[in-house]
Amino acid sequence: MRITAPKVLAAAAVAGAALPAMGAGAAIGLQDDRMAASQAAEIPGRIALAEATGTQVLRIDLFWATAAPTKPANPTDHLDPAYDWTWADTTLCGVVKAGMQPIVSTWNAPGWATGGAKGTRGVVWNSKAPRKAQDYADFMSALATRYNGRTEIPGQGTCKVKFYEIWNEPNLSLYFAPQYSGRKGRKVVSSPKYVQMVNRAVPAIRRANRSAVPIVGVTGPKGKSDKTGRGTLDWIKDMRRYGIKRGPWQYSQHIYPAVGPTSKRRVVPSWGTLPEIASAVNQLPGGRSKKIYITEASYTTAKTTYRKVAFTTAQQRTFMKQIFRLPFVKSSRVPVVIWFQLQDNPDWPGGIRTFAGGQKPAYATFQQLTKTNRPKGNLRPGS
Description:
The chain has helices at 43-52, 64-67, 86-97, 133-146, 190-208, 232-241, 274-282, 313-323, 327-330, 361-372, and strands at residues 27-31, 57-63, 101-107, 163-166, 180-181, 187-188, 213-219, 250-255, 292-297, 336-340. The protein is α/β, with parallel strands linked by helices. It has a single domain, classed as TIM Barrel (Alpha-Beta Barrel), CATH 3.20.20.80. Strands 1-2-3-4-7-8-9-10 form an eight-stranded parallel barrel, surrounded by four helices. The longest helix has 19 residues, at 190-208. It is globular. The chain starts with 26 loop residues before the first strand and ends in an 11-residue tail after the last helix. Residues 3-18 have low confidence and may be disordered.
């Protein structure tokens, strides 16, 4: 969840549910939401700040509109002259060369893909969903081809990126609009559109890179469905209802509860209801085999227009520790928890650094956890 900042416009367990086999615990990763709004020349400095934390997994927002400002004639060809990979090459290859594993979340459609519509007022990214699901799939094909670890990239050599999230929080109108249509605004249109995008993008990514891991859902932290979007459990049910195909994808969830990790209060989504979310994922085609990637999570340390709850910096540090002691997070079902974010912005102060750059108490805890909760399997850098 990210809202606005200077240069940053990037937001009860099921009774009787058995836990998956216990593992060594989820890895801890990080996101720097300032990267997407930084110029290419600024990226090495941002990478250095992330590297200093010790993180081995870094989630990155990649704006489709930045890489494809005009419509390509051959959209699956990454060498089409309409593409501008300057930012992506600098960022993705820089992160890989620094020894981190990127998880790339690709969203923010170019105007040509949405009919020129700008989307929600008050944000600079385009919140409109693309008109054609195939346009997004074609872009993801070009992206996954360029960074498949075999393609020679001018000035970079080869660069292997394995993890590709299909959009960011598409259950929220802030990032994927419209959510509803019809005279009374009751017809759900977001989830059918999203399922179309998933069903086309997942095979396109895998054709370009057989070792790629597409990640779907990317579900924003919403409890109940209303005019601003679909609640978490409704969104997962929608994916089944509208025909998501069985495939080599995984699921991701964002968690920003107003209660601590060990709270017994039932809040969806929260750490306590992760088993319930996993049970819903189990109902998707092949769902029982799917991992639950937590690709955004944090506790904010100040109130903002978008977040009325605030915790002390000491509580933030304590909660970070508690997350990784939870049985479900320690299970084999959860590969990684991505902390959002590296540095506060005025609308989302969940960082381990303050807006001015100082280190919060959670910074040292994050560094400790990077040593004990390291990525495993294909999440390991260089794997």
